[in-house]
């Protein structure tokens, strides 16, 4: 299998998807393989060092054991006389040039043949440390030539110790053979282990990692397709957690994207409607301008209001269009008298001429609010419209016996804060609508209702650093708006600028 191929989200193997290939050569599998072989070789080398030292010490001990046996034979000969040919044979069989033992104060040369002129090294096996065994074995392997060495080991019987003079070369050659065997075995083990480790890691980690990568790459290419969402496995380890988290994240992202594109489509539709509405309003404005010249006193009373409403509607369409997005323009705040705004709201909502709904305005005399007049007008209009709609639906639900229907607007000032309340005697806000009352598209399903009125009102109030909420525990519904005045410094700076 190629080290760089990747699987699709749900399958295990599907080679050749270029976008999923790791950049620049080796993938995870290749790297794992390259890493495993040297690691196993290092382990083999670490094992080799004590093994060769052990081999060397064992060989020397074998020599000493053989020499001890020979010494017993040589020592047992009557009067210590052994024929030269026999002693040579014995020495040859134990690979030694001389054997001596120490008994009491005496050191006895039991046999010797062709003694060398000089002895290169002494090796004392009686109290050899591990470190000495390691350095001794490596020294012997690294030297060249055939020097004579003396091995001293524990004796048997009455002998205190035994000494053997022997050649280094045969011992070194057997060590080379041993090393060669170790290297061959280590290589075989390394390849086998690397293969097993590679397979295990591949199935445990590399394959699931490739699934994750494939899913990420696929999702990146087409985040709106549910086919690219990873199907999590049942694993309970970190990879299982990563798969489940990735799957949840992809699902969330996909639904967010869907919602965003729906909103974008809606935004476009709103812009188009807005555009044509502005044109229609502009022609209505032309007609209402002509209406103003009709001498009838009633027309004279209503025409300026109609003109003013149309002007406001056109300005609003225009500002939304030129702003080009769903966000409201920043409020143009100033201190305004609230009473005329409330009056205009009443007239625009058609409540001035509606006898079925009582209108109560309890506003402190001369109350001013630090607000954008057009935006405050829109906030109040939305609330009053909602109240009127609630009352209408209430009365139609109750038949003709609908009780006292009233919309009440109160206004007061508490220090630097203006508080306005719009309340009605309708059925109140349904419980399930309350949770997301000020969010867009939250509506109780009233025909013709888009669920935007309160969202717009809340956005406008917040742009004034104010608050809007539903007052709990009242008859019908009561919405409270709190609008604080801007800090004095800002006001004075603005006034100074205006004067300048
Ligand atoms: N005064 C009220 N009395 C009872 N229910 C209300 C009142 N004001 C709002 N609601 C409830 O809150 C919901 C959301 O109101 P909102 O003004 O945001 O949307 P809408 O009136 O349905 O539609 P839109 O205002 O966009 O035409 C309404 O559908 C209604 O159920
Ligand atoms: Mg509404």
Task: Give the gist of this structure.
This protein has 500 residues and is of the alpha+beta class. The chain is 54% helix and 15% strand.
Describe the structure.
The chain is an alpha+beta fold and 500 residues long. The protein folds into three domains: 28-191, no CATH class; 250-327; 331-499, Histidine kinase-like ATPase, C-terminal domain (Heat Shock Protein 90). It is 54% helix and 15% strand. It is built from eleven helices and twelve strands. The chain has helices spanning 28-76, 84-93, 130-142, 169-221, 238-291, 297-323, 338-348, 373-397, 431-434, 453-463, 488-499, and strands at residues 98-103, 106-112, 121-124, 148-154, 161-167, 334-337, 358-363, 368-371, 406-414, 417-424, 467-471, 477-484. Strands 2-1-5-4-3 form a five-stranded mixed sheet. Strand 1 and strand 2 form a beta hairpin. Helix 1 (28-76) crosses helix 3 (130-142), helix 1 packs antiparallel against helix 4 and helix 5 (238-291) runs antiparallel to helix 6 (297-323). It starts with 27 loop residues before the first helix and ends with a helix. The relative contact order is 0.06. Mean pLDDT is 84; it is low at 1-19. The structure holds adenosine-5'-triphosphate and magnesium ion.
């Amino acid at each position: 299998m190629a080290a760089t191929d990747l699987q699709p989200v749900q399958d295990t193997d599907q080679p050749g998807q270029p976008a999923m290939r790791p950049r620049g050569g080796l993938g995870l599998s290749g790297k794992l393989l390259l890493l495993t072989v040297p690691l196993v070789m290092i382990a083999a080398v670490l094992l080799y060092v004590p093994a060769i030292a052990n081999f060397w010490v064992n060989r020397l001990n074998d020599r000493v054991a053989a020499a001890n046996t020979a010494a017993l034979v040589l020592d047992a000969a009557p009067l210590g006389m052994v024929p030269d040919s026999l002693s040579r044979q014995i020495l040859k069989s134990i690979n030694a040039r001389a054997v001596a033992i120490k008994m009491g104060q005496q050191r006895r040369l039991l046999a010797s043949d062709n003694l060398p002129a000089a002895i290169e090294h002494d090796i004392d096996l009686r109290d050899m440390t591990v470190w000495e065994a390691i350095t001794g074995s490596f020294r012997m392997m690294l030297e060249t030539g055939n020097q004579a060495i003396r091995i001293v080991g524990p004796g048997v019987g009455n002998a205190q110790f035994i000494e053997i003079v022997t050649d280094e070369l045969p011992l070194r050659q057997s060590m080379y053979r041993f090393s060669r065997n170790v290297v061959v075995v280590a290589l075989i083990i390394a390849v086998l282990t690397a293969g097993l480790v590679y397979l295990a890691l591949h199935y445990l980690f590399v394959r699931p990692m490739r699934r994750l990568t494939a899913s990420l790459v696929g999702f990146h290419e087409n985040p709106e397709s549910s086919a690219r969402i990873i199907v999590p496995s049942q694993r309970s380890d970190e990879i299982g957690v990563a798969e489940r988290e990735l799957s949840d994240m992809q699902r969330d992202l996909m639904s967010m994207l869907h919602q965003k594109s729906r909103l974008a489509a809606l935004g476009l539709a709103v812009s188009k409607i807005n555009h044509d509405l502005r044109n229609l309003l502009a022609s209505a404005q032309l007609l209402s301008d002509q209406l103003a010249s009709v001498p009838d006193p009633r027309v004279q009373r209503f025409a300026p209001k109609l003109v003013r409403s149309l002007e406001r509607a056109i300005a609003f369409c225009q500002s939304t269009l030129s702003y080009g997005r769903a966000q409201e323009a920043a409020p143009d705040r100033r201190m305004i008298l609230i009473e005329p705004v409330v009056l205009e709201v009443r007239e625009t909502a058609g409540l001035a001429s509606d006898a079925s709904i009582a209108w109560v305005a309890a506003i402190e005399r001369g109350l001013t609010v630090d607000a954008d007049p057009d935006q405050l007008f829109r906030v109040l209009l939305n609330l009053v419209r909602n109240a009127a709609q609630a009352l209408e639906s209430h009365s139609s639900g109750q038949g003709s016996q609908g009780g006292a229907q009233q919309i009440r607007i109160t206004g007061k000032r508490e220090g630097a804060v203006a508080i306005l309340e719009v309340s009605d005697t309708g059925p109140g806000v349904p419980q399930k609508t309350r949770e997301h009352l000020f969010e867009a598209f939250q509506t109780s399903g009233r025909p013709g209702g888009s669920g935007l009125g309160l969202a717009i009102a809340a956005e406008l109030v917040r742009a004034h650093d104010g608050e809007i909420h539903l007052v709990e525990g009242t008859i019908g519904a009561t919405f409270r708006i709190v609008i604080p005045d801007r800090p004095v410094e800002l006001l004075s700076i603005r006034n100074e600028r205006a004067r300048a």
